[in-house]
Automatic annotation (TrEMBL):
<dbReference type="GO" id="GO:0097176">
    <property type="term" value="P:epoxide metabolic process"/>
</dbReference>
<dbReference type="InterPro" id="IPR010497">
    <property type="entry name" value="Epoxide_hydro_N"/>
</dbReference>
<dbReference type="Pfam" id="PF06441">
    <property type="entry name" value="EHN"/>
</dbReference>
<feature type="active site" description="Nucleophile">
    <location>
        <position position="175"/>
    </location>
</feature>
<keyword id="KW-0058">Aromatic hydrocarbons catabolism</keyword>
<dbReference type="InterPro" id="IPR000073">
    <property type="entry name" value="AB_hydrolase_1"/>
</dbReference>
<dbReference type="InterPro" id="IPR000639">
    <property type="entry name" value="Epox_hydrolase-like"/>
</dbReference>
<protein>
    <submittedName>
        <fullName>Multidrug MFS transporter</fullName>
    </submittedName>
</protein>
<feature type="domain" description="Epoxide hydrolase N-terminal">
    <location>
        <begin position="4"/>
        <end position="109"/>
    </location>
</feature>
<feature type="active site" description="Proton donor">
    <location>
        <position position="300"/>
    </location>
</feature>
<dbReference type="GO" id="GO:0004301">
    <property type="term" value="F:epoxide hydrolase activity"/>
</dbReference>
<comment type="similarity">
    <text>Belongs to the peptidase S33 family.</text>
</comment>
<dbReference type="InterPro" id="IPR016292">
    <property type="entry name" value="Epoxide_hydrolase"/>
</dbReference>
<keyword id="KW-0378">Hydrolase</keyword>
<dbReference type="InterPro" id="IPR029058">
    <property type="entry name" value="AB_hydrolase_fold"/>
</dbReference>
<feature type="active site" description="Proton acceptor">
    <location>
        <position position="355"/>
    </location>
</feature>
């Protein structure tokens, strides 16, 4: 594939039937006292969700909705990359590259793409329109199933934007998408007009000059790693040990991903933290039908290997103008921590939302991006 080609999602019927069959035949663990989120996942709630996934969830309706987004695939440096490319409706749209994380996908941004491309339709100004590009990281979604670290992905994104005709562009991301966005700013600064982040990395325990606020943040993160960080440790070290279970059992896939999603949500609203039940199940189904559980986890290991080799994708401080947003159900890093890594032009505390803000509070997320990138047009 040497050119950009239109793409539509078309999952065969037998794949969806196999998914339902596997859900129906799940061998559930025997119940015991304390089968709640404190042990990783609330098993009764997981079972209820999987029952709904099997019997009531309508993949075809969700597939049709996703296909309303203009999607493409292209060969980028020998890697087949799937992406959304939606043109802005305005006098001079700003090119904007959005990078998802784990356990989400390009679907993370499906609610905000129309708001960003056509702001006037949603009560905004046409001057704030963006040309939006949302690629699927290799190893995720409908891109090639290859494991790549953040630096390599950033290089692919720079080449993709060249193929699409954009010399300079803005970028935003969270979770592993934050690492890719930082790698773009550090490795390809001449291409970047600005970056926006919803997290900025965590203290390693090796820092010796932390402010009191940073010290509080470091202590919080240390506790978080002990209670919530098991998934990352496994992804970084032994992703293939878990991969067969996630590829064979949709209930297992749901359990593993829900255990992480719940870390950024109130336990009673874990589905809402991902934009609702249908949104959550659509994302899970995307992982299932593309068979990308293994390669998506391996991205963590690729980044760790690079760091141990002295080539961390986020090592250094970017001089590119940066916007940073804190959401109340996300890790509360202080501004001075963000300043260690990026040149902060805007630091915002949002009133609602968490790790998946583009799904949970799309209006707030969109308004934040508009405000930050609009400010750069006057700099």
């Amino acid at each position: 594939m040497s050119t950009v080609e239109p793409f539509s999602i078309a999952v065969p019927d037998d794949v969806i039937e196999d998914l339902r069959h596997r859900l129906a035949r799940t061998r559930w663990p025997h119940p015991s006292e304390g089968d709640d989120w404190g042990r990783g996942v609330d098993l009764p709630r997981l079972r209820e969700l999987c029952d709904y996934w099997e019997r009531d969830y309508d993949w075809r309706a969700q597939q049709a909705a996703l296909n309303e987004l203009p999607q493409f695939r292209a060969d980028v440096g020998g890697v087949r990359v799937h992406f959304v490319h939606a043109r802005g409706v305005g006098p001079r749209p700003t090119p904007l590259l959005l990078t998802h994380g784990w356990p989400d996908s390009f679907h993370r941004f499906h609610k905000v793409v129309p708001m960003l491309t056509d702001p006037e339709r949603f009560g905004g100004s046409a001057a704030d329109a963006f040309d939006v590009v949302v690629p699927s990281i290799p190893g995720f979604g409908f891109s090639d199933r290859v494991a790549m670290g953040s630096t390599a992905v950033a290089g692919l994104w720079a080449r993709l934007m060249t193929q699409l005709g954009y010399d300079r562009f803005a970028a935003a991301g969270g979770d592993v998408g934050q690492g890719v966005t930082m790698a773009l700013a550090l490795r390809h600064p001449e291409r970047m007009t600005g970056i926006h982040l919803t997290d900025v990395g965590y203290p390693t325990g090796q820092e010796t000059d932390l402010s009191p606020a940073e010290q509080d943040f470091a202590e919080f993160i240390q506790g978080w790693w002990f209670t919530e960080g098991a998934y990352a440790g496994l992804h970084m070290t032994k992703p293939n040990a878990l991969a067969p279970a996630l590829h064979d059992s949709p209930a297992g896939l749901a359990a593993w991903m829900l255990s992480f999603i719940n870390t950024g949500a109130d336990s009673h609203r874990v589905e809402e933290a991902f934009g609702g039940r249908e949104s959550l199940l659509t994302n899970l189904t995307l992982y299932w039908v593309t068979e990308t559980a293994k390669t998506s986890m391996q991205m963590y290991q690729e980044d760790v290997r690079a760091a141990f080799a002295g080539d961390s994708p986020t090592a250094g401080r970017s001089t590119i103008p940066a916007g940073v947003a804190r959401f109340p159900r996300e890790a509360r890093f202080p501004r001075e921590w963000a300043e260690r890594f990026v040149t902060v032009h805007r630091f915002s505390d949002l009133p609602e939302g968490g790790h998946f803000a583009a799904l949970e509070v799309p209006d707030l997320f969109t308004a934040e991006l508009r405000a930050f990138f609009a400010s750069l047009r006057t700099v």
